[in-house]
Design goal:
eleven-stranded mixed beta sheet; 5 helices; alpha+beta; 2,3-Dihydroxybiphenyl 1,2-Dioxygenase, domain 1
């Protein structure tokens, strides 16, 4: 591997763990890390999904909560399809899968990260936040996890703010919620 430039000048906004049961994992995070509250996002719709450059499908749910200044995502895959999560963790295993940041131009960020030697693992659009594009990159050789990048979007920023605001002054009641 060539000498590595800075991977990101952007702030990390999220860390994601693969889990078998997002509700159980959320309660564990509340108890052991004082993160939360967590909001359940069942069976997230992913449009125009590609995995390693080919059309793909993925059935996954997430629980998201706040941990200090960083959002925590607990990612539960329901299907046996290949994915960036399954590249790292078999069913029954869990661990840190990716970190996330926002960029103004996801195409430019893809070119930059690919030029650094990080392959694109997944791309898709999230219709729940206006069709916002995101991508995962395989950065495991540098720090053992992948990277997720969102293109800037007002709806996604408002979603992040909503999760952060719920954590302000939260005293532990109703730790796992529907969104």
């Amino acid at each position: 591997m060539k000498e590595l430039d800075t991977i990101t000048p952007h702030p990390i906004v999220q860390m994601c763990w693969v889990v078998d049961d997002m509700e159980t994992a959320a309660l564990q995070w509340v108890k052991t890390m004082q993160a939360g509250p967590f909001f359940l996002l069942p069976h997230i719709q992913l449009d125009d999904l590609t995995y390693r450059g080919k059309p793909a499908t993925l059935d996954q749910s997430s629980a998201v909560g706040q941990w200090g200044t960083v959002q925590v995502e607990l990612f539960q895959q329901h299907c046996h399809n290949p994915s960036g999560a399954r590249e790292m963790f078999a069913p029954g295993q869990s661990g840190l899968q990716h970190i996330t940041w926002f960029v103004d131009d996801i195409d430019a960020e893809t070119r930059r990260l690919n030029a650094l030697g990080f392959d694109t693992v997944m791309t898709c659009r999230l219709p729940a936040v206006g069709g916002l594009r995101l991508a995962w990159y395989d950065t495991r050789k540098v720090f053992g996890a992948m990277v997720e990048v969102y293109e800037e979007g007002d709806l996604m920023r408002r979603f992040y703010k909503r999760i952060a605001n719920a954590a302000e002054g939260w005293t532990g009641e109703n730790p796992v919620r529907s969104l």
